[in-house]
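Subgroup meeting minutes
Present: P.N., E.W., G.H.
Scribe: E.W.

1. P.N. recapped why we're keeping a running log of single-chain structure predictions: easier to compare across weeks, and new members can see raw inputs and outputs side by side.
2. G.H. added today's entry (335 aa).
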Amino acid sequence: MRMTMLQRVCLLLLALFVLTACTDNGGIEDRFVTYAERLANVLEVDAPTPPSSFAITLEDKRRLYSELPRLYLGLLDSYELSDCGLFQIVAEKNSSLGKVWDQFQDFDYQLRLSNTLRHCLMSDSLSARLRKQLEDLANIKQGHLSIHLRNLILTSDAMRKQLSGHQWLMEGQQSQWSEIHDALSIFAQIDAAAKAGEPFTLSVYPYQEVLERAPLIGALYYSLQRSTRWLNLTTEMLSKHISSIHCGANRDQTRFNYLRNVFDEYYIKSIQAYNADLDAAYYQLSNHLPIIITSFEEQNSAYRLQEAHQEFRQANLQHIQFWQQLFQRCQNPVQ
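Output recorded in log:
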């Protein structure tokens, strides 16, 4: 059956979309491959074998999740609480929809419940017995909020997708980074307020979609590690064969000149520019990292993004130092 013109156009657009998605992500890997291969060609040696495939993964949910005791609000049958909103919020949780809430919706319920308990305590009509019950319950729920938040960060599908990664971080995602920063800022504000026993009117549910749709933190973590491994391999290859790079008076500097051109064209213009973006993305994120790092540490686990960045910086420094020393020896300093 012959395709209509519209069908052909749609098929072409789909093919272009798939091709673009593949080449965009593969394109960053290709920068490192090409750089190493061009250097190896000039040195007349074998190019280094690419780093082994890997992925940024998290421990099993069951290992990271903290169980909390169920609290039964037996005091809800008290007429004294009929006007403070507690009946309504608990009824919402116990409804057919409330029973299938995901972790973001349930966490927002925990926030509303804690605030509503505080509101109920402001009533002057409470008996001493009921006030004591409410105070005890409010204190318990307040103390649980940080644990609920930790469970959200470590075990919710959206956050686990956000923190995992197996692909290079794509360029030009500034607007999405801003949304990720906003979400982590809300987490930190809620945690601080919960630990200080302060009220809050914040909500996490509006950030669930972007956290799941744009998994940038895991991609950044992966990219830092992948770049580090490539740079270490390339620096090792250069250092191993430095004796074959001749320069100076009455020496044939052809190989050195070719290497300098490869460095300028493939490292400075491409890889260094991309790595500078990774570095900037990390520093912009770093102010929001403590809530993530602490959540893992409290469960005797670790999210080693900070260490990955330190290793990345070291790999970049060592690579540049090799070229600086080579150019200094050849009286052609790095600008």
